[in-house]
Amino acid sequence: MNRPEIIKRHEFLSGIRDTLPLLLGALPFGLIYGAIAATSGLSMTAAILMSALVFAGSSQFIAVGLVAAQTPVAIIVLTTLIVNLRHMLYSATLLPYLKDLPQRWRIPLAFWLTDETFAVTVHRFQRSDSSPCKHWYQLGSSIAMYLNWQFWCFLGLVLGNRIPDAQSWGLDVAMPVTFIGMIIPFVKTIPVLVSVLTAGAASLLTLAMPYKLGIVVSAFAGIASGLLAQRIIDARREEQRR
């Protein structure tokens, strides 16, 4: 095996390894999605296809709930699109590192991009080493998350009603805790801290907004506040130099 192939293999396996701690966190979400989908009126085929083709936990939960409420298809599609707008922010962050890749790479990496994979991958891209194969790291993380999610969703579908009172498993607490755990490693500067606190406060204030629009509003509020904090810090540094 030549050196480039060794580097690719190392990056790929490192992506899988660094994602392993997050795989167990998907267990309750996948099981509960499958259990709820099994009792929502969706056929097993439709539920499996949704999991395989949408691959977005929050959107899948929302879509299943809307299907159970017999919501029009157009509203379901629009709502899931709005909830997934945060992935545009993820993509914009990763674009400088992936822009030179061919479409055959960028399309699958974009499809497989999740909150967990983004959190793991962005750390790898931000390291100062000159590895030309960091996208293989993202591929390893992406495939690990994808196969893991499909497995737990399928198991939830198979178990169905045998999972007692799935909707009361406390995901309203577990999901925020999971996200907080992914965010903490990024809080290393004042602008990032301001961004996180602002987004958190905004999410509480916009909790009642329909179609989960509060997620998008909170994300943009966090970005804007972080940029503003960085500008203020830069301006003060410039004044001190004079």
Structural write-up:
Its main location: membrane. This is Inner membrane protein YgaZ. Belongs to the AzlC family. Pfam families: AzlC. It is found in: Cell membrane. This protein has 242 residues and is an all-alpha fold. Helix 6 packs parallel to helix 8. The model has no long low-confidence stretch (mean pLDDT 84). 77% of the residues lie in helices and 0% in strands. The protein folds into 2 domains: 161 residues, no CATH class; 56 residues.
The portion of residues assigned to helices is: over 70%
Intertermini distance: 57 Å
- Which H/E pattern describes the elements? HHHHHHHHHHHH
* Arithmetic mean pLDDT: 84
Summarize the main sheet: none
The total tally of domains equals 2
Assembly state of the chains shown:
single chain
Structural class from helices and strands?
A: mainly alpha
Brief overview:
With 242 residues, the protein is mainly alpha-helical.
Task: List the defining traits of the structure above.
globular; mainly alpha; 242 residues; 2 domains
SSE topology:
Elements: H1 3-23, H2 26-38, H3 44-54, H4 57-68, H5 73-83, H6 86-98, H7 103-111, H8 115-126, H9 134-159, H10 171-183, H11 190-205, H12 213-241
Helix pairs in contact: 1-8, 1-9, 2-4, 2-9, 3-9, 4-5, 6-8, 8-9, 11-12
